[in-house]
Design a protein that fits this description.
Structural class: alpha+beta
Strand content: 5-15%
Number of strands: 6
Distance between the termini: 27 Å
């Protein structure tokens, strides 16, 4: 069981723990969805065991992604922020999309300026010929209309409730939310041995 800073408790079972390592493996490609699931499981494990140091690894076709170690306090803070994003998403549609936001945050972590990172993210968002992008997913079309371009996600500047202070160089809510979602995971991947 993990207790978040606001007192809420998360409980459940984490499988794939071998000694001090969480191992998640599958036959598919390592993609943002699998990376996030592994990250979330890793956070829950790290948060629930403050006296132990865990590492994590996602093994997929053609790639292996290591995680950690991170401490219990850092895991709890990351979980709490993901919960806040979830709660905000229950009140309004957030201008983020799984692959598109991952591509943007990854490029920003590698030093790309916002405009360049957005060009790369647009390749995941916008459809290309017979290959549909995330913009063709029914949930996104319901919110933004048929076949929206990337400006549908980037139209709004960050607001006071978006916790944009950690990313003052992000000009859009999309940028802030993408970084809030993915930066902690990308940091944990980077610090892994």
């Amino acid at each position: 069981m993990a207790t978040l800073p606001d007192g809420r408790r998360l409980s459940g079972t984490v499988t794939g723990v071998h000694g001090a390592t969480l191992v998640i493996s599958n036959f598919g490609k390592v993609n943002p969805k699998r990376r996030f699931r592994t990250w979330l499981t890793y956070l829950l494990l790290a948060a629930a065991h403050p006296d132990e140091e865990f590492r994590g690894v996602l093994v997929g076709r053609q790639a292996t992604v290591p995680l950690g170690p991170i401490g219990s306090d850092e895991a709890c803070r990351s979980l709490a922020d993901l919960v806040r994003l979830h709660e905000l998403g229950l009140r309004e549609p957030l201008p983020i999309a799984l692959k598109t936001s991952f591509e943007y945050a990854s490029a920003r972590r590698k030093g790309a300026v916002a405009g360049e990172a957005l060009k790369g993210a647009a390749r995941s968002w916008e459809s290309r010929g017979r290959y549909p992008g995330e913009n063709r997913e029914p949930a996104h079309e319901q919110i933004y209309g048929p076949d929206p371009d990337i400006t549908a996600l980037t139209a709004d500047a960050p607001g006071s409730d978006d916790e944009a202070g950690l990313w003052p160089d992000e000009p859009t809510r999309f940028g802030v939310f993408s970084r809030r979602w993915w930066d902690p995971m990308l940091d944990a991947e980077r610090r892994a041995p």
